[in-house]
């Protein structure tokens, strides 16, 4: 504290805002009560929490108003602090510290009150300044009110955008406590009140650990201003155990302890469903392309024999109707080609033809294959599936080997034929379809119905328009026409040109029994092209037992003696023909054993001894 001349501070005090309207006479009286105090750098002038007893005017130097390390403001010459101590005895709300050597004018509360009471001019001057300050505060308050309103509008717009966003937006602090979540976030979290909950609770352990590592890296300064995609898809587990897969981004803002993170998640469930649908459609397209290609090649149905011309006339007659067709014939006669011809000539030709081999699908799966199933309908049903009947809607379904359809499933097929509707496995929703049914079999369905192995009512529903496909051996010269067409086709595919059949070779083809029909012919020709040399094929070695036929036709010695190896080969070939003729049925009235005049046990032993196996 130093002595001073009161008059020397009058002009200085006039420049101080707090005393700007006080007369010099009153300021002179004020100066008589002022004390001069000097503080060194970093000296504490006021401690937060102390009760004030004076106000200060900075004569020279600079101070800071602060709360520990937090700085509120810096003040310099002619500025005041501590004015509230003049009118109350409340604890100081902040500390004041000198930033450099500072000289202050200190006015005690008791002297200020005395001047207000005794000096009217002083009181009027102070009151005038306070009124001005009050007006300024009103203006500031009005400006703040407008700013607050604008801020509220801006905040409302921002919250509208956040809540209207389809992506889930979750904001959380450095302790992983949620501070904000929009409507989409509350939906995937299945919780309307998520504030202050730990965000990690809603993630699978592995994904929660990933988020913890990202936040830790940001806190340690390894990531600056984090704004990045999540490195992998995360699984969100809602409060009601619903699981969703999401991709997203995470960003941070703030410094020190006040760091917040914004997590934006986008569900990929719909995208996965779309990808699954695309995959399914791609597979369906591939399936349809393979189905169209299978067994058709370029030769299609070749038939000049009377039996085939009559069959094709019947095909033309029935194609334009919606009648159910039952195609009968031995295995390998081309029943599927006939079905395709019916479909192609019908008004459904632009729609799919869906093929189902009822004998090739396991009994426990065929119902799902035909009619589809719902997710969870049975063990392994991880997703819903559309059946072949729905795939064939407005088109045609070809039920090959219909005689192999399980008896328990036949009423459901009968319902589709009669009512045009079915229920998928595991579903109570009935699906209506408009499907034309073409069935095929190599078995006698009438006999099967008499034996109780096939529903009689279903047989009559299928047998509306029966077609009998003749065996290849019954088609005369068609055998050679088809063979020559196949020779050209496989020669082109295998890049091996082979001459067409000669007259002698055609005779070999016509005299062979062809128990495997067109399919056997197709396999035989393909094998012949593969083993051909220099464009020539030794058909005598290719056609089963043709060496005997050639020997007889050329007048060779009738009483030829065969070696043991040749005899075994002949017996093996003969048994194979019998098995193919009976579709590999061994016992029974129409079995191979009966055809060969052997006991079933004897035939079984021979099959094993000769190493005969059924082709796949």
From TrEMBL:
<dbReference type="InterPro" id="IPR025944">
    <property type="entry name" value="Sigma_54_int_dom_CS"/>
</dbReference>
<feature type="domain" description="Cyclic nucleotide-binding">
    <location>
        <begin position="18"/>
        <end position="116"/>
    </location>
</feature>
<keyword id="KW-0804">Transcription</keyword>
<feature type="domain" description="Sigma-54 factor interaction">
    <location>
        <begin position="301"/>
        <end position="530"/>
    </location>
</feature>
<dbReference type="InterPro" id="IPR003593">
    <property type="entry name" value="AAA+_ATPase"/>
</dbReference>
<keyword id="KW-0547">Nucleotide-binding</keyword>
<keyword id="KW-0238">DNA-binding</keyword>
<dbReference type="InterPro" id="IPR025943">
    <property type="entry name" value="Sigma_54_int_dom_ATP-bd_2"/>
</dbReference>
<keyword id="KW-0805">Transcription regulation</keyword>
<dbReference type="Pfam" id="PF25601">
    <property type="entry name" value="AAA_lid_14"/>
</dbReference>
<dbReference type="Pfam" id="PF00158">
    <property type="entry name" value="Sigma54_activat"/>
</dbReference>
<dbReference type="InterPro" id="IPR018490">
    <property type="entry name" value="cNMP-bd_dom_sf"/>
</dbReference>
<dbReference type="InterPro" id="IPR000595">
    <property type="entry name" value="cNMP-bd_dom"/>
</dbReference>
<dbReference type="InterPro" id="IPR014710">
    <property type="entry name" value="RmlC-like_jellyroll"/>
</dbReference>
<dbReference type="InterPro" id="IPR018488">
    <property type="entry name" value="cNMP-bd_CS"/>
</dbReference>
<dbReference type="InterPro" id="IPR027417">
    <property type="entry name" value="P-loop_NTPase"/>
</dbReference>
<dbReference type="InterPro" id="IPR025662">
    <property type="entry name" value="Sigma_54_int_dom_ATP-bd_1"/>
</dbReference>
<keyword id="KW-0067">ATP-binding</keyword>
<dbReference type="InterPro" id="IPR000014">
    <property type="entry name" value="PAS"/>
</dbReference>
<dbReference type="InterPro" id="IPR058031">
    <property type="entry name" value="AAA_lid_NorR"/>
</dbReference>
<protein>
    <submittedName>
        <fullName>Sigma 54-interacting transcriptional regulator</fullName>
    </submittedName>
</protein>
<dbReference type="InterPro" id="IPR009057">
    <property type="entry name" value="Homeodomain-like_sf"/>
</dbReference>
<dbReference type="Pfam" id="PF00027">
    <property type="entry name" value="cNMP_binding"/>
</dbReference>
<dbReference type="InterPro" id="IPR002078">
    <property type="entry name" value="Sigma_54_int"/>
</dbReference>
């Amino acid at each position: 504290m130093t002595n001073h001349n009161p008059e020397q501070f009058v002009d200085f005090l006039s420049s101080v805002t707090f005393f700007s309207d006080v007369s010099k006479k009153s300021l002179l009286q004020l100066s008589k009560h002022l004390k001069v105090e000097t503080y060194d750098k970093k000296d504490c002038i006021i401690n937060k929490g102390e009760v004030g007893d004076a106000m200060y005017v900075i004569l020279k130097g600079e101070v800071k108003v602060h709360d520990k390390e937090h700085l509120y403001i810096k003040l310099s010459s002619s500025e005041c602090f501590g004015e509230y101590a003049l009118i109350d005895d409340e604890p100081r709300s902040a500390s004041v510290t000198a930033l450099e050597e500072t000289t202050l004018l200190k006015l005690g509360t008791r002297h200020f009150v005395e001047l207000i009471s005794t000096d009217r001019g002083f009181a009027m001057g102070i009151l005038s300044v306070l009124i001005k300050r009050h007006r300024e505060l009103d203006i500031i308050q009005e400006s703040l009110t407008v700013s607050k309103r604008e801020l509220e509008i801006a905040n409302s717009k921002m919250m509208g955008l956040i809540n209207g966003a389809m992506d889930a937006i979750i904001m959380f602090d450095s302790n992983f406590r949620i501070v904000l979540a929009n409507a989409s976030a509350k939906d995937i979290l299945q919780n309307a009140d998520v504030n202050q909950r730990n965000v990690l609770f809603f993630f699978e352990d592995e994904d929660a650990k990933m988020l913890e590592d990202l936040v830790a890296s940001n806190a340690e300064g390894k990531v600056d201003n984090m704004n990045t995609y999540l490195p992998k898809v995360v699984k969100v587990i809602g409060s009601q155990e619903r699981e969703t897969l999401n991709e997203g981004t995470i960003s941070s803002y703030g410094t020190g302890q006040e760091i917040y993170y914004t997590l934006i998640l986008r569900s990929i469930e719909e995208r996965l469903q779309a990808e699954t649908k695309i995959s399914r459609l791609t597979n369906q397209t591939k399936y349809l392309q393979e189905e169209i290609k299978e067994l058709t090649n370029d030769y299609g149905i070749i038939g000049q024999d009377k039996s085939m011309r009559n069959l094709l006339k019947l095909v033309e007659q029935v194609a334009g109707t919606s009648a159910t067709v039952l195609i009968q014939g031995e295995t390998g006669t081309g029943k599927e080609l006939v079905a395709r011809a019916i479909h192609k000539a019908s008004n459904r030709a632009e729609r799919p033809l869906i093929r189902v081999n009822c004998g090739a699908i396991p009994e426990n799966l065929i119902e799902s294959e035909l009619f589809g199933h719902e997710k969870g309908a049975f063990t392994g049903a991880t997703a819903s599936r559309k059946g072949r009947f729905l795939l064939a809607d407005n088109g045609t379904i070809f039920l090959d080997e219909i005689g192999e359809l399980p008896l328990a499933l036949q009423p459901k097929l009968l319902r589709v034929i009669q009512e045009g509707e079915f229920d998928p496995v595991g579903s109570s929703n009935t699906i209506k379809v408009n499907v034309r049914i073409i069935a095929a079999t190599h078995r006698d369905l009438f006999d099967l119905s008499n034996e109780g192995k096939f529903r009689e009512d279903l047989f009559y529903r299928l047998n509306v328009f029966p077609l009998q496909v003749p065996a290849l051996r019954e088609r005369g010269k068609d055998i050679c026409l088809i063979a020559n067409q196949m020779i050209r086709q496989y020669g082109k595919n295998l890049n091996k040109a082979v001459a067409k059949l000669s007259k002698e070779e055609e005779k070999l083809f016509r005299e062979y029994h062809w128990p495997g029909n067109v399919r056997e012919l197709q396999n035989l020709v393909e094998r012949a092209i593969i083993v051909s040399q220099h464009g020539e094929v030794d058909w005598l070695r290719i056609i089963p037992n043709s060496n005997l036929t050639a020997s007889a036709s050329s007048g060779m010695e009738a009483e030829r003696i065969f070696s043991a190896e040749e005899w075994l080969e002949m017996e093996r070939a003969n048994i194979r023909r019998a098995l193919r003729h009976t579709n590999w049925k061994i016992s029974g009235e129409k079995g191979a054993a009966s055809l060969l005049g052997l006991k079933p046990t004897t035939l079984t032993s021979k099959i094993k001894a000769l190493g005969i196996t059924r082709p796949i």
